[in-house]
């Protein structure tokens, strides 16, 4: 299963409480349409992270780099909650080079967004929309990141997601047509045998 990354171009803020600096922001926004490279539109449904937040140990990273951990839910240095707006993130920044650097970059405005890495658990596709629209109903959250380039740049992966949905739709249509043909053939044979 490939890790999907998405970003929000809404700069997190830095808060200071005595010695502790906390980065606060949103890694995902609910009911907000995002154009995925012109391939399809994606939306995160409210509650998409409810189950993963209850059970998973999620990390906070810098630019999705697993070597630059700055918080973790099991250590209570990363707090994630869902509210009406989206997935709210609070990271108590560590007194490390990465933690101190991130605090400065946030204060200066050099870090311009937050992002999250996830696996889709449940989704719905609306093929009547042009382009197609995907709503993520449930996702397993792997990480949240402070990012310099908050863009939806996973277009190659997005293309695979879209193609998989189209192939599934084509298989469904093929099997439905085959069932209709078998039913028609059976009915034709029955009516001929009665005649």
TrEMBL record:
<dbReference type="InterPro" id="IPR006433">
    <property type="entry name" value="Prohead_protease"/>
</dbReference>
<keyword id="KW-0645">Protease</keyword>
<protein>
    <recommendedName>
        <fullName>Prohead serine protease domain-containing protein</fullName>
    </recommendedName>
</protein>
<dbReference type="InterPro" id="IPR054613">
    <property type="entry name" value="Peptidase_S78_dom"/>
</dbReference>
<dbReference type="Pfam" id="PF04586">
    <property type="entry name" value="Peptidase_S78"/>
</dbReference>
<dbReference type="GO" id="GO:0006508">
    <property type="term" value="P:proteolysis"/>
</dbReference>
<keyword id="KW-1188">Viral release from host cell</keyword>
<feature type="domain" description="Prohead serine protease">
    <location>
        <begin position="15"/>
        <end position="166"/>
    </location>
</feature>
<keyword id="KW-0378">Hydrolase</keyword>
<dbReference type="GO" id="GO:0008233">
    <property type="term" value="F:peptidase activity"/>
</dbReference>
């Amino acid at each position: 299963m490939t890790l999907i990354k998405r970003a929000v171009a809404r700069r997190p803020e830095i808060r200071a409480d005595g010695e502790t600096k906390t980065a606060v922001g949103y890694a995902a926004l609910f009911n907000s349409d995002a154009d995925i490279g012109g391939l399809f539109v994606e939306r995160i449904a409210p509650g998409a992270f409810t189950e993963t937040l209850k059970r998973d140990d999620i990390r906070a990273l810098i630019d999705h780099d697993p070597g630059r951990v700055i918080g973790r839910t099991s250590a209570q240095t990363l707090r994630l909650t869902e509210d009406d707006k989206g997935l709210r993130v609070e990271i108590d920044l560590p007194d490390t080079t990465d933690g101190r650097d991130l605090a400065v970059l946030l204060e200066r405005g050099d870090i311009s967004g937050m992002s999250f890495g996830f696996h889709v658990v449940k989704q719905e596709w609306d093929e009547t929309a042009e382009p197609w629209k995907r709503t993520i109903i449930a996702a397993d959250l792997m990480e949240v990141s402070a990012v310099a380039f908050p863009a939806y740049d996973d277009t190659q992966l997005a293309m695979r997601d879209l193609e998989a949905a189209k192939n599934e739709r084509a298989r469904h249509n093929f099997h439905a047509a085959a069932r209709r043909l078998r039913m028609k053939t059976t009915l034709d044979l029955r009516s001929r045998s009665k005649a």
